[in-house]
Design brief:
With about 80 residues, this protein is of the alpha+beta class. The chain is about 20% helix and about 45% strand. The protein contains 1 helix and 4 strands, in the order ββαββ. The protein has a 4-stranded antiparallel β-sheet, with helices on one face. The mean pLDDT is about 85.
């Protein structure tokens, strides 16, 4: 599992990115099940899939970071 990266694409919106590299030996149905599991349980969405010439899949998942603003009565 790769390290999760966080960055703001535009002001006020932050995304968390997770990069995954999967070998060519994994079937398409297995990869699909893995990604669906991550989407349903972790809130991730598919940002990019790249299939290299040697069959290795490089996948980038993302999810929004929701920040709560602090109410003024706590200040």
């Amino acid at each position: 599992m790769a390290a999760v990266e966080r960055r703001a694409l535009r002001k006020g919106m932050e995304w968390e990115f997770d990069r995954i590299t999967l070998p060519r030996e994994l079937s398409k149905s297995l990869v699909t099940r893995m990604l669906v599991e991550r989407a349903e349980n972790g809130g991730w969405e598919l940002a990019r899939v790249q299939i290299k010439s040697d069959g290795v899949r490089r996948i980038v998942l993302r999810r929004k970071i929701i920040r709560q603003t602090r109410p003024s009565f706590y200040l």
